């Protein structure tokens, strides 16, 4: 069935739904609405995310073979808690999952099957979850980036967010990603075979987009809230025509079609079934069609891709995603009163995440670069200001300090730190004039010195796995490799190493401190 | 030497874990007082490390390293 849940009757659910401004939220016959949620997480941290879900929502997760995704079931009223999960990047509600979908070998047949699928799916409960999710979003005064930019840059935004993966892979057709074109009716004759199809299609559509967005701009100007077209009419549900797009991610070498084609045809069937309007950039509903070999998942997005996907523009090109920072911290299992140090903190992504989620630990951040220290200090101030606004009296302090220091000469006592967690730099010089090749062992030695023998641990992210492995072999007497997580950082293959500090005490080599 | 009226003794008192008044004062100094401008002084060498805008600079000079 659409979702394999066992609904339990919940009195009062209808009233709660009424408050949210919706119709009855009951799934069927008075049962409570449940949602099967799919979450994208940093690849390699699926288990970590599953643990967080168990801890905070009490639900068990299934980890998909399609990497970077987990699935779990929760009552729809838990959506606010779901959004507060720290290890997930994006969320969607599952319409239906097929564990072993048999694709027809012939392209036309395979695509026809996908089209026919649309009317067979149970959309109504997932759409209720989507509506509920919308009402949650409206409560926050979130600035919707899409609407505040010109059509040209809006294209660019979704280009950067969505098509990045497609550019790399279209040539061998292993994996690609595409969305339904704006004007579904007009695509009948369009050439979709060429590898540049994705980018050229966007080029073609820009003109059509401009026409539509001209009209939309007027609608937005007149609406007070300034949110997406149609948002202000959510209460009237039925009368309004929804705008949608289909995003298809396809991976596998046995499919006879591309993601472009699947998105196009699936989208066409969706349009016909619901009589919605296809719109690439200003959509209300984003339908997801994820195909990974024989695993097919149809879903509806609950978060906006462009907001979460690549945080590279927020602080700087090397800032770590907070979901990855969270995953790294969880890996070292911080205990209350643990001292956690990030000796190369950059703009402070890790210690800030640490102080927010593990306030019973003490976090110390440091870097030798004055710009980084300044930015990190600013980010900490923002965190403090956030705490201030909630409480009218004195602001709660944050157990986090920042210091400007040299990774090779840390002003910390030997054996005084429980956890070292950091993003190791790659291709950058640090403080002293040594090269990375010498730097890594020096860092590991100094981190080994400050870390408590036996119970201490380190979680280190690096892209230079070769250099790291070499360095680690030189410090085997103080660090033991406990676990390796293969991750993807901005398209590059990196690794997170969990190391355990041996019982051997470090020599007091530094007489200065 | 914070110049702050916290009245901490120079050494932790024996059985400080049970002394709530002492613990409160330590907590206050550690987590609720922020030095914005000033310096940290090494008790052995006397070398001062400046603190500016709440951030201490503990980089060593070429000679010291």
Automatic annotation (TrEMBL), chain A:
One of its GO terms (cellular component) is cytoplasm. One of its GO terms (molecular function) is RNA binding. Residues 138-147 have a biased composition (Basic residues). Residues 14-25 have a biased composition (Low complexity). Gene3D superfamilies: 3.30.2130.30, Vaccinia Virus protein VP39. Its main location: cytoplasm. It is found in: Cytoplasm. It comes from the Eukaryota. One of its GO terms (biological process) is tRNA methylation. The keyword DNA-binding does not apply. Keywords: Cytoplasm, Methyltransferase, RNA-binding, Transferase, tRNA processing. Residues 192-302 form the THUMP domain. Residues 189-202 have a biased composition (Polar residues). Residues 1-25, 138-238 are annotated as: Disordered. SMART domains: THUMP. CDD domains: THUMP_AdoMetMT. Belongs to the methyltransferase superfamily. This is THUM3 protein. It comes from Donacobius atricapilla.
UniProtKB/TrEMBL annotation, chain B:
It comes from the Eukaryota. Gene3D superfamilies: 2.20.25.10. GO terms for biological process: rRNA (guanine-N7)-methylation; tRNA methylation. GO terms for molecular function: protein heterodimerization activity. InterPro entries: Trm112, Trm112-like. It holds the Pfam family Trm112p. Belongs to the TRM112 family. This is Multifunctional methyltransferase subunit TRM112-like protein.
């Amino acid at each position: 069935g659409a979702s394999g849940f066992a609904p339990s009757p919940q009195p009062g659910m209808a009233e709660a739904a009424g408050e949210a401004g919706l119709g009855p939220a009951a799934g069927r016959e008075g049962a409570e609405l449940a949602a099967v949620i799919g979450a994208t997480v940093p690849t390699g941290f699926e288990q970590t995310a599953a643990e967080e879900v168990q801890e905070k929502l009490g639900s068990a997760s299934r980890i998909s073979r399609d990497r970077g995704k987990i699935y779990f079931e929760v009552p729809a009223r838990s959506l606010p808690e779901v959004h507060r999960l720290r290890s997930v990047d994006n969320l969607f509600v599952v319409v239906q999952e097929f564990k072993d979908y048999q694709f027809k070998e012939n392209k036309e047949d395979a695509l026809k099957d996908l089209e026919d699928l649309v009317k067979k799916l149970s959309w109504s409960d997932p759409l209720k979850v989507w509506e509920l999710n919308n009402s949650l979003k409206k409560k926050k005064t979130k600035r919707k980036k899409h609407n505040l930019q010109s059509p040209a840059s809006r294209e660019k935004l979704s280009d950067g967010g969505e098509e990045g993966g497609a550019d790399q892979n279209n040539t061998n057709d292993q994996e690609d990603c595409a969305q339904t074109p704006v004007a579904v009716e007009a695509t009948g004759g369009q050439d979709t075979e060429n590898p540049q199809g994705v980018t050229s299609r966007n080029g073609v559509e820009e003109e059509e987009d401009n026409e539509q967005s001209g009209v939309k701009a007027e609608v937005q100007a007149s609406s007070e809230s300034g949110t997406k077209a149609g948002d202000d009419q959510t209460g009237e549900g039925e009368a309004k025509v929804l705008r949608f797009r289909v995003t298809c991610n396809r991976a596998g070498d046995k499919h006879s079609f591309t993601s472009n084609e699947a998105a196009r045809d699936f989208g066409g069937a969706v349009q016909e079934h619901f009589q919605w309007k296809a719109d690439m950039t200003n959509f209300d509903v984003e339908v997801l069609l994820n195909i990974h070999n024989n695993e097919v998942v149809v879903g509806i997005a609950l978060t906006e891709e462009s907001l979460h996907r690549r945080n590279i523009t927020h602080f700087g090109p090397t800032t770590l995603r907070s979901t990855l920072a969270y995953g790294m911290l969880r890996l070292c299992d911080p205990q209350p009163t643990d001292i956690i140090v990030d000796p190369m903190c950059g703009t402070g992504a890790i210690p800030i995440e640490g102080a927010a989620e593990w306030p019973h630990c003490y976090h110390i951040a440091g870097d030798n670069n004055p710009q980084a220290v300044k930015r990190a200090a600013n980010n900490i101030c923002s965190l403090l200001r956030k705490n201030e606004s909630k409480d009218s009296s004195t602001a709660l302090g944050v157990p986090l300090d920042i210091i400007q220091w040299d990774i090779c000469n840390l002003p910390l006592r030997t054996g005084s730190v429980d956890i070292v967690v950091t993003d190791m730099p790659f291709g950058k010089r640090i403080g002293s004039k040594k090269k990375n090749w010498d730097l890594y062992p020096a860092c590991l030695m100094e981190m080994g010195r400050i870390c408590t023998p036996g119970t201490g641990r380190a979680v280190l992210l690096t892209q230079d796995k070769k250099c790291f492995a070499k360095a680690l072999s030189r410090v085997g007497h103080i660090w033991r490799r406990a676990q390796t997580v293969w991750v993807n950082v901005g398209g590059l293959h990196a690794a997170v190493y969990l190391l355990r500090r041996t019982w051997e005490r470090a020599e007091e080599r530094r007489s200065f401190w | 030497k914070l110049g702050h009226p916290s009245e901490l003794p120079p050494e932790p008192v024996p059985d400080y874990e049970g002394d709530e008044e002492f613990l409160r004062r330590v907590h206050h100094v550690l987590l609720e007082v922020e030095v914005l401008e000033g310096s940290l002084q090494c008790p052995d060498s006397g070398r001062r490390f400046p603190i500016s805008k709440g951030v201490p600079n503990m980089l060593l000079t070429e000679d010291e390293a």
